[in-house]
Amino acid sequence: MSKIPEPSRRFSVAPMMEWTDRHDRFFLRLITQKALLYTEMVTAPAIIHGKRDYLLGFDEAEHPVAVQLGGSDPKELTEAARIAEGYGYDEINLNVGCPSDRVQSGRFGACLMKEPDLVADCVAAMSAEVTVPVTVKCRIGVDDQDPREALPTLIEKVRAAGCRTIIVHARKAWLEGLSPKENRTVPPLDYELVYEMKRAFADLEICINGGVTTLDETEEHLTQVDGVMMGRMAYERPYVLAGVDQRLFGVATPARTRHEVIDAFLPYIARRLEEGVNLHAMTRHILGLFQGMPGARAWRRHISENAYKKGADISVVTEALSKIQTNATAEPSGDVERVGT
User: Fold this and answer.
1) Is this model's pTM higher than 0.90 or not?
2) Catalytic residue flag (residue 111)
3) pLDDT for 31-41, tens place per residue?
4) Domain ranges in the chain?
């Protein structure tokens, strides 16, 4: 049996709790075919003991797609990784970066930066049992750690355990004193340290995450590291992804326009509605699609006010689409909205 090629991590969309669910991933895949997509973090015990189809089910159209696991018990993580591989995921990613209280109490996420040997044990155990790549997403350090000691130590340990890809959120995580929301913005970014890690570990694939808002910034980072992961901007203003395939992967086919994206998403919505999925569960992900365009506010308002209602169907979306001003339909395919400037 031939080995499935590894997904390209040149550009990816970050795993985000309560955001990057299967409906959002299907929607984003209509904008970019090449970006690697990640699930929300799923804990190993939840996969082992919970509703697996609900937690791990995804549409084949989402490929390439990676599952992010949370946990610190090598045996549990290995079992969860085997199950996830069986569902067809292209990568198993271990969360060593989430700073939430729930994660800390469970001894996983960013607090594992303090236990690099344990992280290595987890990586080694999973790598020995699955054929897909096992990767690590981490911070540059936590609390009073010196990132210039903590980060290379972690990288050295997981490299020895067989990990070939590390995605680094270029901020510290403060487990005491900052909320999870504040941890996404308050600690300063240290991109240069991540660049140094790529120079120091040239044999590894080093990807950077944190504060990336445009494809111009992405291309600049790619002169120093192997891959870029975009988070909140890709969710809040998803059409920023419209140039990913063309600019970063050399695809000649123009990206879909925003209207074409919605046209392609409607059949998916209809299928899921028939399965009993609530309309709001899907439309909450598309609110930012027309951000910055005439009628965008009316689009958001109409969906927000009507999608949650009993019996709501795709007419809510088509009616909202009519509120985008006519001249907006003339947008060029693949136009990348300039954000963060």
Assistant:
1) yes
2) no
3) 999 999 999 99
4) 11-249, 258-330
